[in-house]
Amino acid sequence: MIRTVPMIEARHLTKVFRDKKRGEVRAVDDVSFTCEPGRIYGLLGANGAGKTTTLRMLATLIAPSGGEAVVAGFGVATHPAEVRARVGFLAASTALYGRLTARETIAYFGQLHGLDDARIAARTAQLAEELGMGDFLDRRVDTFSTGMKQKTSIARTLVQDPDVLILDEPTLGLDVMAARGIVRFVRECRARGKTVIYSTHIMSEVEKLCDRVGIIHGGRLLAEGTLDELRERHGERDLEEIFVKVAGGEGVV
Amino acid sequence: MKLRDTLTVYRKELRDALRDRRTLVSMFLVPAVIMPAIFFLFGTATYQVVKSAQAQPPVVAVLGGMDSPAVKAALEVQPGLVVVPAPDDWRERIAGKRLRAVVEIPAGFEASLTEHAPAEVRIYHYEGEFKSGYAVGELRRFFTELRERTLARRLEERGLPAGFARPFDIRTENVAPPEKVGGNSFGGFIPYLLILLSFTGVIYPAIDLMAGEKERGTLETLLSSPASRLDIVLGKFLLVLTVSLTTVACSLLSMTVSLVVGGIAMIGSGRMAEQLSGAAKAGSALPSLDPLGLVGVVVLVLPLAVLFAAVALTISLFARTQKEAQTYLAPLVAVVILPAIAGVLPGVELDSTLALVPVLNVTLACKELVSGVWPWGQLALIFGSTCVYAGAALAWCVRMFGRESVLFRS
Fold first, then answer.
1. A159 → chain B, closest CA residue
2. Are residues B102 and B222 in the same domain?
3. Buried b (16+ CB within 10 A) or exposed e, B32-57
4. Are residues B289 and B186 in the same domain?
5. Under an 8 A CB cutoff, do B217 and A114 touch?
């Protein structure tokens, strides 16, 4: 694949919710960006900024109200199943089935991805080895520690070896060690040439991981670029200061 | 739609459900306990009523009969009855169940027997009350025997054969199922119980598979897989239906076992009941069902279970949490119980209009079916309409599952 061809391309992506109390809410408003293979794109924003909605649209969980997005060569609105087949989606909110074992969980999602039993067995062995899941692979998920659950979630996300990873605040609610595990996993994905989009509100994670950053606030993508570009443009060294500036000052945030 | 994905989801849900204690309880334990318990309680209750009637003979009173001392004396020593002098307020006492029946011997009764004059013995009773009916049976038997003896004596006096006043016998033979004869409400209760269990069977899995998955966050994980929403919802629906039908099958099995195991005791008490009470016919109150009718009931319950599963899943889908789903689903039990109450109300008979009312129609049809009555036209209407409702409910469920405002309601 030619490296310059974007794997994720959002064009004027817009999502409007109708809320009984607040009326029409533009959760995501005219957001455009691109992500390339072997790169990590960080979507930085406060809670309620529109990160989750954007990523859910890219993962075809919800449909855009306006604009379009192409993921791994397929339109999210026109070919959602093809998009999902090529995307690994992991969010703080994507939990696991407590009454299944780790092996059964991986197998279940492998089957839903259309993999045959031999391929599932091979993938399970490979992922268990890479993630160090050997000793709890056949235990039920409801007996797991947070770290074990996290590993199982990662294995579930990677079972079909997706080209694109959509990660929505994957470290939310994790302890330090589990969060470090996620960061390591994201780096490894980049090293393997996968396209990663990573949303967070934690500045340090962005600084550690992301090749490009989009700052989203109030549903709008207010600034975008590499970290160095953003620092140069806003005359600030610290990402937090840049973020506050872009978002419109302390009062707004 | 990909059948493979539907079956993958179904198999996973089945494995998940079989590891869930609460599903197992509602699927296996409830039918296994409830059915024998009901049979046992019913059998014991019948037996107790009959036994107490034997142990405590009903109290009856005699009005008049001052000029018929022989008859009165014979009545007073009649076993199975306690005869007391008639108080002034005997009518109230019958109503108050302190007196079971009163017999009125007309003036000059004994004289009329010898003089061939017409006479009328009246029995006052409490209609529909078990012990009063028992007393009436005993009184009627006493006076019937007296009439037979009087007739035999008269024939003998004239040198006529015993068959003179009885040119032929009339024998009636019951061909209808026994529960129809006894007006047995228990027979209608069994299929209704199947309907109720097919509904209670869907509640827990429906809550767990929709609201539960939403609450735990696994639904989002599942939706991010390439399986289409149609396949996911159909797999889940099939599991809920499986649990419901398994509950029904377990109930039937448990019922059969209860009947076979408890059969000896039940038949024993039934025979005893018939020997004990000439008129009360306690024996006919025993649960006897037409097995073929039960097959018909199961066929009618099938589309009803589909309807229940689809409705419960959809309602659960709207809820954000399991608690919320419970709040929505609990009142639905009333929707299933009310038709049963309506079904036993006097005058509520199966007709073409009621055949279109969901749940009520199946309840009414089941009453007929277990009595061995097959109103084919109405049965077709009931089965057809229930299938239409079930199909519509399933279509609604699929439609709602495709709506992101419902799936991601927050």
1. B225
2. no
3. bebbbebbeebbeebbebbeebeeeb
4. yes
5. no
